[in-house]
Amino acid sequence: MKKTSNRLADGREIIYYDLSATAESAVRTAADRRPLPPIETASEIRHDPLLDDWVGVTAHRNARTYHPPADECPLCPSRDGRMSEIPEADYDVAVFENRFPSFRGAPGDEVHDGSPLFARRPGAGRCEVVSFTSDHDASFADLTEEQARLVLDAWTDRTAELSQLPGVEQVFCFENRGEEIGVTLSHPHGQIYAYPFTTPRTERMLRSVAAYGERPAGDNLFDDLVAAELAVGDRVVLDGEHWTAFVPYAAHWPYEVHLYPKPRVPDLLALSEEAREEFPGLYLELLRRFDRIFGADQPRTPYIAAWHQAPFPKGSQSGQGRAERFAAREEFALHLELFTIRRAPGKLKFLAGSESGMNVFINDVPPEAAAQRLREVAST
């Protein structure tokens, strides 16, 4: 792999990841000649005292690109006189700072608006776009194993760099695919968010792990959960030497698969080389099965693929609190959650009253039936 960093016309960083470090195409010197104005962001985070979480407020994102025609795709290479977000005429994987980021810049002091209950801070951090391939009409499932491994290496490299930024506590690599999900660019791509806080979902998992570890046995909840799914077996979809994939017992979504490495590691940085080698083939098989769930005559399945990594304690923490945070992250288990909102051909699972109003999910597809279907559509 070869990594090359450059700058776009407005100063944003763009990074190319190439399969071959010696290929002529790996020389990345193309300049961005677009007359772009400077980025202006107004991102802040506000604290919700009832739920004890943070909400991003980002008025500047209302102007972001929305369903452009294919010949104006900002993720395609710059060719034939048309400049895009990616100045090169071709590329393997490209990562660049989002022009309309939810989080950007350095951390700042917390201030209060008229009451101690109304706390806000700058929306520090960074948001990046990851273009998986220069092929506009492809999907992640169409990549070769070599290309998928390159994306994994890019995710890992970005996690390493973003986790070192001031104020960043958690790095989230994810892909949204399909208009039903809300995707506004059809080019195969994902995103990376570097958050200035630990996300509520991760905090909740860490609390569950801590409570479980206080039991007399003192075991790890993630380890026991994966072992229990493997022992029961009827929700296991794939079980490799270094990864296992299963539909969770209490799946929230119609078709939902959790993919865990063996043994447990806290983040992408800690994956073994053996796990990295096995990941592309296994993950591509999962994605291809997702596309076959509803039949060959149906459009590709919309999905979200989300990497859950342990948060990164920052140097500003000290003493026992920082030690506890490091201990907590070592108990966390890196895993990927892959799920779709489609529950049947032509029918979507909407987050309506119970889910959106009370965060109580109602799943129309029994997890055992979902796992059975995902085994039935295995590649031959």
- Estimated helix fraction: 10-25%
Mean pLDDT: 93
Largest sheet: spatial strand order: 1-2-5-8-10-9-14-15-13-12-11
What does the largest sheet look like?
A: 11 strands, antiparallel
Based on secondary structure, the structural category is: alpha+beta
Poorly predicted parts: 316-320
Distance N to C terminus: 31 Å
> How many H/I helices?
7
Nearest-angstrom radius of gyration?
21 Å
Strand content: 15-25%
Using the alpha-carbon principal axes, give the shape: globular
Secondary-structure element pattern, one letter each = EEEEEEEEHEEHHEEEHEHEEEHH
> What oligomerization state is this entry in?
single chain
- Topology, number of strands: 17
Descriptive tags:
alpha+beta, four-stranded antiparallel sheet, eleven-stranded antiparallel sheet, single chain, 24% helix
Write a structural description.
The protein has 380 residues and is an alpha+beta fold. Helices cover 24% and strands 23% of the residues. The chain has helices spanning 145-162, 200-213, 221-232, 273-292, 319-331, 353-358, 367-376; strands at residues 2-7, 13-18, 43-48, 53-58, 93-97, 111-112, 119-122, 126-131, 170-177, 189-195, 236-239, 243-246, 255-261, 303-308, 335-340, 342-344, 347-348. The strands form 3 sheets. The chain has an 11-stranded antiparallel sheet, with helices on both faces. The radius of gyration is 21 Å and the shape is globular. Residues 316-320 have low confidence and may be disordered.
